[in-house]
Design brief:
530 residues, mainly alpha, 3-stranded mixed beta sheet, two-stranded antiparallel ribbon, 23 helices
């Protein structure tokens, strides 16, 4: 009786966990996300999500006009800038250009996140099936990978990092080919290409996952079969490189050192935290970010306490030394170049120090994201082991998963656009002009006019300096600011007063008042036109 009731319960619980949090999302016109860490934001409440909304708008606009979406002439006008190595997910953005997809960029982002969650679930279930999981275990594996804390927190800020479905599909075909279970080299390469198009981080994740797969396989494939599988992955990487490299852009900046990787590293206690978005975390009042975390999105690396406990139990019960060593290796790599405890680096060197000092690999500055690889392994182990659990143990495991990782609701960001931003002539200069401002990207999706400044995760500060538009914010004398604004190519200047704190607003009001005669302190935006 218990066994018969368990199967429909697994199906219904999985569907509810994947779909329910999005019910309220699609009834609003607000994007999924949370504000960024105040220490990293120019204005309170700002978020990378606004830049991602802009990216969906721009790609759709470029594709509809037959232009190259990886080169944007409407920011840093008139020179424009390459977006090839901007921190955006190209696969998701290009899919949202298909007919029938929402034209509203906020809705496009939300739908892409939802589709990415479903794709992660499907890819995770497919991968677990290639390892021998039955259908119910495959559903559990897909749910573990789609809802693990290390992924769900990235849904709120870095959608391109969260979209690991292409990695899982490529890895599934890679595994199936090595195990002679219906895998295909063509699909291995195609999905590897799509994964790297989504994010360069996924290339690192897929490489590490394929290496772990090669180590963990019990059936040792013939050398030539293993080489072919790796060649298919490499072919996907090469195709992605041929897409990106000709379009240029600041990739090898040379500014990143191994010390930055220390900052963005996980800590031992990171793997012992439950999901702050699940019922247990909500009831316990767990914050998204703890004081010792660099930020919420790189600080939560756990794959879930229930999945972790099952993974440890399987390693001990079956004496899977190779599995235990691979998991331990992933965890140690995620700790970065130096061991950190309580947000402070100790003198203990770790293996990540080697790639962190190499020119190319130094760009991979966030070792904490390897926590997702542990989640992939834990998901596969949960799926394969599910049928081996006693019926009562399966109920306990499912209840533990739901209690920790089911997301009652997703947080949303505000997305109103000031009316003054809807009717402007370009080029537009947003004030204060700071390459760290994200939210003005949202405003451009409404007026569509060229902008003299913009936020870019790769090269934004350099582009502002080349345009001679840095330093137009706090600290400049008003005389210099007026001269530079009038000498610029701006037809319209928008001073976004509502973004500032009261203290900062008072200072900026005194600086900009001569440029905006007749402006009222009751207005949220002051407008200057040539």
């Amino acid at each position: 009786m218990i066994r018969d009731a368990l199967r429909p319960a697994v199906v219904l619980a999985t569907l509810a966990a994947l779909v329910f949090p999005w019910v309220a999302v699609f009834g609003s016109n607000r994007p999924v996300g949370v504000p960024g860490d105040p220490a990293d934001m120019a204005f309170p409440g700002d978020s990378d999500v606004y830049d991602q909304i802009w990216h969906f708008w721009w790609v759709r606009k470029a594709v509809s006009e037959g232009a190259d979406p990886m080169y944007c002439p409407v920011i840093f006008h008139p020179d424009g800038v390459s977006l090839a190595f901007h921190n955006v997910g190209w696969t998701s953005a290009l899919i949202m250009c298909l007919p029938g997809m929402p034209r509203n960029p906020v809705q496009a982002l939300n739908l892409a996140l939802f589709m990415g969650t479903l794709l992660t679930f499907v890819g995770g279930a497919f991968l677990a099936a290639k390892w021998g999981a039955r259908w119910d275990g495959a559903l559990v594996a897909g749910a573990v990978m789609a809802l693990m804390p290390s992924r769900t927190v990235h849904v709120l800020q870095h959608y391109m990092v969260a979209q690991i479905g292409w990695v899982l599909l490529s890895l599934g075909f890679f595994t199936g080919y090595l195990k002679k279970r219906g895998g295909g080299l063509l699909f291995t390469g195609v999905f590897a290409f799509l994964a790297v198009m989504e994010s360069f981080y996924h290339g690192i994740l897929l490489t590490a996952a394929a290496a772990a797969t090669s180590v963990l396989l019990r059936e040792r494939p013939a050398g030539v079969r293993l080489y072919r599988a790796w060649a298919a992955v490499a072919a996907g990487f090469v195709l992605a490189a041929l897409w990106f490299i000709p379009r240029g852009g600041p990739f090898f900046t040379g500014s990143m050192t191994w010390r930055e990787a220390v900052y963005w590293s996980a800590e031992p206690v990171s793997y012992l935290l439950p999901s702050s978005l699940g019922p247990a975390g909500r009831l316990a009042g767990l914050p998204l970010k703890y004081p010792w975390m660099p930020n919420a999105f790189e600080g939560q690396v756990s794959c879930g306490l229930a999945a972790t406990a099952l993974l440890v139990w399987v390693c001990l019960r079956d004496r899977r030394l190779s599995l235990a060593l691979v998991c331990l290796g992933v965890v140690i790599l995620s700790f970065g170049p130096l061991l950190k405890v309580g947000g402070r680096a100790t003198p203990v060197p770790l293996p990540w120090m080697i790639p962190a000092r190499l020119p190319f690999f130094a760009q991979a500055r966030v070792p904490a994201r390897l926590g997702m690889l542990l989640g992939i392994i834990a998901g596969v182990v949960a799926g394969v082991s599910f049928r081996r659990l006693r019926p009562w143990a399966r109920w306990v495991f499912l209840a533990a998963l739901a209690g920790e990782m089911f997301i009652p609701s997703l947080p949303l960001l505000p997305a109103p656009v000031p009316e003054a931003c809807r009717r402007v002539s370009g080029p537009v200069l947003d004030l204060p002009a700071d390459p760290a401002i994200r939210i003005t990207a949202l405003y451009q999706t409404v007026h569509g006019q060229p902008r003299l400044t913009a936020f870019l995760s790769r090269g934004g500060s350099d582009a502002c300096e080349e345009a001679g538009l840095t330093g137009l914010g706090m600290g400049d004398s008003m005389m210099v600011t007026q001269e530079r604004i009038r000498a610029s190519a701006a037809e319209t200047a928008l001073y976004h007063r509502m973004l500032l704190t009261p203290e900062s607003r008072a200072l900026h009001d005194s600086l900009y008042a001569p440029l905006f005669p007749g402006a009222s302190t009751e207005d949220s935006v002051w407008v200057w036109s040539r």
